[in-house]
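User: My collaborator and I are trying to settle a disagreement about how two of our proteins should look. Neither of us wants to argue from intuition anymore, so we agreed to look at predicted structures for both before our next call. Could you fold the first one, then the second, and keep them clearly separated?

Assistant: That sounds like a sensible way to settle it. I'll keep them separate. The first protein:
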Amino acid sequence: MLFDKTFSQLTTTELFQIYRLRAAVFIVAQSRVVQDPDDVDLIARHIFIKDGDAIVAYARVYPADGGVSFGRVVTAAKDWAGN
């Protein structure tokens, strides 16, 4: 199921799952040193797909330079268990 939420609309469980997925992909798997979470999370729309209770795909959309920008686009590995 597809969801589109502001930061304040996210449940604590959704926020935790989003940050965990982003960390697993961007920081651990890609060895990127990034500030995550960051202040953009507060103004972004959080678009994500759930498979059952698990978030398996995520992107954030936010205003930038008179338009919009997409960031933190991530999909979980097929065997993602969130561990």
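The second protein, kept apart from the first:
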Amino acid sequence: MLDDFMVRAALAGVGVAAAAAPLGCFVVWRRMAYFGDATAHAALLGVALALAFDGPIMLGVLAISLLVAIMVSTLSGRGLAEDTLLGVLAHTMLALGLLAVSLMSGVRMDLMAYLIGDILAVSKSDVALIWAGAAGVIGLLIWRWQALLSVTLSPDLATASGINARREQLILTLALAVVVAVAIKVVGALLISALLIIPAAAARPLARTPETMALLAACIGVFSALGGLNAAFRWDTQTGPTIVSIAAAVFVLTTLVGIVRNRA
């Protein structure tokens, strides 16, 4: 079955969407959209370093994503606003990644495949790594759900209840780094944050509880991945942007449903 490239692409898309969309709920709730964007932009430097040292792409992306998370956690609040720091890191890492790519004369690299994704080129090992990472993120979210939710709703109250808010923040950034690493081949560095944010934002008008929103976001993410893959195959378009466009269309639809419901 895995010899069919469309089956591999579908499995990769479902794996990434199932992990990214529920995690994206925390990104939306905590207003961390810029953090996801910065981590995704930094991923290109991880790709360049992995190719330069002939290592696994996902490992290189994961290492750089974790480095960005640690730098933000360490430097924020020390004279720089977090959004300023994220802006500096995002564009610096992206520039360094592009510079590293231009200097690698002996390494062949399809830059567009890492910028906007190339889901049709995923291998069996890529699918296995994507599902391993996705299972890890989903398991982490289930395990730490109540603690993460408490810190998101009220950090002070969570701390008073004995929850280490800084530890939960670190867990969340670790999960984000893993999602960026596994999503790089599916939607690319420029569109990863869209797959995190849009399904979660689309689920918000339809959900009454955080758990419902996470489940709906996962369903919307999976629908967007499969729908985008099918549309791209039929119309010969770039798969990553098509997946995000499907998610955006669902967001518009659910937003209109929410507006109508509120007026009723």
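Some points you might bring to the call about the second protein. The CA atoms of residues 125 and 131 lie 10 Å apart. The radius of gyration is 18 Å.
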